[in-house]
Amino acid sequence: MEFEPVIGLEIHAQLATRSKLFCACPTEFGQAPNANTCPVCLGLPGVLPVVNRRAVELAIRLGLATHCTIRLDSQFARKNYFYPDLPKAYQISQYDRPLCERGWVEIAVAGEPRRIGITRIHLEEDAGKLVHEGRDPTASYVDLNRAGVPLVEIVSEPELRSPEEAKAYMEKMHALVTYLDVGRGDMEKGNLRADANISLRPRGSDRLGTRTETKNLNSFRFVQQALAYEIERQRAELLAGRPIVQETRLWDALGKTTYSMRSKEEAHDYRYFPEPDLAVLRLEPALIERIRAELPELPDAKAVRFQRDYGLSAYDAAVLVADRATAEFFDATVGHGADPKRAANWITVELAARCNEDRASIADLRFGPERLAEMIAMIGRGEISSRQAKTVFDHLYATGRAPAEIVREQGLSQLSDAAALEGLVAKVLAEHPGQVEQYRAGKTKVLGFFVGQIMKATGGQANPALLNDLLRRKLA
Amino acid sequence: MPSPIDIDKIALLAALELSAEEKRQFAGQFEAILAYFRKIEEVQLPETLRPGEEEEGPLFRDDVARPGSTPPESFSPHVEDGHFKVPRVIE
């Protein structure tokens, strides 16, 4: 039997605020354990939460960018469960009246655009962190610095149909979050993480199968791999006639498998109810319109502009806009006068490869876009060949020094002075009358011999196009 | 009227082990609390006075951070290297 996967993602993104969602404690990462805590986020008695205006505005910004309707009367709710990382024994979240509802984003897999529905985007506070590697093996250690840090939870409709689509959707969400400055999107720090819901059903059926949820996937690749694994696992279960158990699973990145975290018997009942300590979140339409007017250029619009104004292919444009810093670096390189297609090529091929090798990002570069533009201009003026440019680029990437300086220092400059080359050509032709005869008798392959002689004489620095041209003219 | 209280489920959610006597006792207390809520529900309130629906809207704070104010040692005896120490729990 052929099965069709039905996938929905819940993405949690940390909002880029200075202070927590309901108190003034800093959200800064990497502080001493429990340094960023106060009676509110510790859940001590007799305190009241007060909403961070910035967090609400950032969530609205993301809602507008994903075509959601913004509720003017959303409400916070208590989600009750017991765990040592949750000091109040409830999380302040939103339930039946989320801030943003019914939106969509467009993704493309293999060039096929698809619109994926967003069910809701709501605000909630993060939990603390448990450490299990302490002195006492019978204890766990709790750090509540993260408790109360603002998050948005972005819930997609179950409209994703493959692990590749799920990955593309998460990449799109990451791009939006970072373009909008809604969050920092640093996946290694868990700033953006996904829970993936997946079930299988016979292709053509419109009934949903039993689903599993794989939690805390903090990379695009993990989402894709975990879903691919779950598809195979569920398919095998169904084909063997065993029912799928509705459960929460975890991804083991080393073993590349998912494993059961808690079974249905322990499934949580969160007993949601409206948060009595916070009034309904009433918003003025004018606020929504102000935030709408301030939205920056989003990735889709940027990709269209790159194709229209710079003549880039849809593929190159998509690669460039996937990461905001890369797109801005490209824009700035072109702004410094670089040929757009050459700039796109250097950035998506050479620069991307080196960043990938070093696990570095654009922010870590030792050089700015003006340097890359200078190098591209030197290629355009024939001062260096494309091959020499790779050497220049290696030095530029390693040291960040000016390309002209690198060229001088490495003795790379291309001999493009026609008068100087002409003299050399005349000399070499005079030294090899036999080969000149052969060429004129129709054996035009000898041209390569002359090119080789002159390259040898110039240490490989002769401009190849100019040289070929000169030789042909002199030999005609 | 059958009791609306499923004391076994509540105990499970609260991760508590209750004796038969405790179950009877707590179920009775829960029922008394619910009876009181039913009494409150009978009061007819104007729409604008429904809890959380106040007219003045939310009170926001600006996004200004202040250093944390409550060192864990100041109120918990179970602190080690700045962490709260709890019985081991791994899901």
What does this structure look like?
The complex is a heterodimer of chains A (476) and B (91). Chain A is an alpha+beta fold. Chain A is built from 15 helices and 17 strands. In chain A, the strands form four sheets. In chain A, strands 3-7-8-11-1-12-13-14-15 form a nine-stranded mixed sheet. A three-stranded antiparallel sheet of chain A has the order 6-5-16, with no helix packed on it. Chain A has a two-stranded antiparallel sheet with strand order 4-17. In chain A, a hairpin with a 7-residue loop joins strand 9 and strand 10. Chain A is elongated, with a radius of gyration of 30 Å. The mean pLDDT of chain A is 91. In chain B, strand 2 and strand 3 form a beta hairpin. The relative contact order of chain B is 0.07. The chains are: A alpha+beta (476), B alpha+beta (91). At the A-B interface, strand 2, helix 1, strand 10 and strand 17 of A face strand 1 and strand 3 of B. Strand 2 of chain A pairs parallel with strand 1 of chain B, so a sheet runs across the interface.
